[in-house]
Design goal:
Elements (H helix, E strand, L loop, with lengths): L8 E4 L2 E11 L5 E6 L5 E5 L3 E3 L9 E3 L6 E10 L5 E6 L5 E5 L4 E2 L11 E6 L10 E6 L14 E5 L4 E4 L1 E4 L7 E4 L2 E4 L4 E2 L5 E2 L1 E2 L9 E2 L10 H8 L6
Antiparallel strand pairs: 1-2, 1-5, 2-3, 3-4, 6-7, 6-10, 7-8, 8-9, 11-12, 11-15, 12-13, 13-14, 16-17, 18-19, 20-21
Length: 240
């Protein structure tokens, strides 16, 4: 028996209703619900008198059949079956066709898009497989580029290590990159004073170009020196 909860839609005596309260048990032991009819008035209904709202299909929808293993595309329909009910013509991935009763089909819902600004891990990016596993931030989720023999790459991901790529699949992550620049396995933070081997102090500012090495700011021993140059010539850089 289908379980209904508040807010669900259901069919009672051929009409659609909305569950507004319940379920609760009546004096005779039956399970009841309060439902709102199409005219806005509320009524009680036995749970056994309700049925789920039929899934509405359209040509082009992705579906699975009774086995739930293979995915098909609705090619044509619905058609009235000889013994009642409806059936659809399905298209297999190889382009051939078959048919199935409507009540044996389950609609495959597209996953919700990951919002812009979310930190993610790249899981699928055609022609950029070496970037799989990299992290970054979603800058757009409405891209339309579709590589041949692949799916739409709707995400533009700005990578933590510089540059951006198009991706088809991503997974949100809750890690935060260090607010600094990584060089030879060490992350040097922006705005933090570092002391070199000569005792001079350096502070680095965030670069304006993605992937570029930071420069020393006005509070440093010399302004405008590359972090890479300083590390290579005056390492180690230490903090208090």
């Amino acid at each position: 028996m289908t379980e209904f909860k508040v807010g669900d839609k259901a069919i009672r005596h051929g009409s659609e209703v909305e569950i507004t309260y319940g379920p609760f048990t009546g004096p005779l032991g039956f399970a009841w619900l309060v439902v709102r009819r199409e005219d806005g008035k509320e009524d009680t209904a036995r749970v056994t008198d309700l049925s789920p709202v039929p899934v509405k299909f359209a040509v082009g929808d992705k579906v699975t059949a009774a086995s739930g293993v293979n995915e098909y595309t609705l090619h044509a329909g619905p058609f009235n079956g000889g013994l009642g009910g409806h059936f659809w013509v399905l298209e297999r991935p190889d382009g051939t066709h078959c048919w199935a009763h409507a009540d044996s089909l389950t609609k495959v819902e597209a996953p919700a898009l990951v919002p812009v600004g979310t930190r993610v891990r790249v899981d699928r990016a055609k022609w950029a497989e070496e970037q799989h596993g990299e992290t970054g931030v979603i800058r757009s989720n409405t891209e339309t580029w579709t590589p041949r023999d692949d799916v739409a790459h709707v995400y533009e991901v700005e990578l933590d290590n510089g540059g951006s790529i198009a991706a088809a699949e991503v997974t949100p992550v809750d890690d935060e990159p260090a607010d600094g620049f990584e060089y030879e396995g060490v992350t040097y933070k922006y705005g933090v004073p570092y002391t070199d081997c000569d005792g001079d102090t350096w502070t680095f500012e965030r670069p304006t170009r993605a992937g570029a090495a930071p420069k020393s700011d006005s509070s440093s021993y010399r302004i405008g020196e590359s972090l890479v140059y300083i590390v290579d010539n005056y390492r180690p850089l230490t903090t208090d």
